[in-house]
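User: I would dearly like some help making sense of a protein record. I have put the entry right below:
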Amino acid sequence: MPTSSNIALGSSNEAENQLILAKDLGYIHENDYQNLLEELTTLKKKLVTLWNRLNGN
């Protein structure tokens, strides 16, 4: 059964894929892509930390 932290991590991966697609299709500039990717990476690290704490790792 997926937990809310698993769902959130999966959603962040989906957001990353959408971000890559937006850049590749020219909807956003490289600079904006890099800034958003940095923020998303920070969020994903926090989600992994939360997941680890919830699972006793």
In short: The helical segments are 4-24, 30-54. The first helix runs from residue 4 to 24.
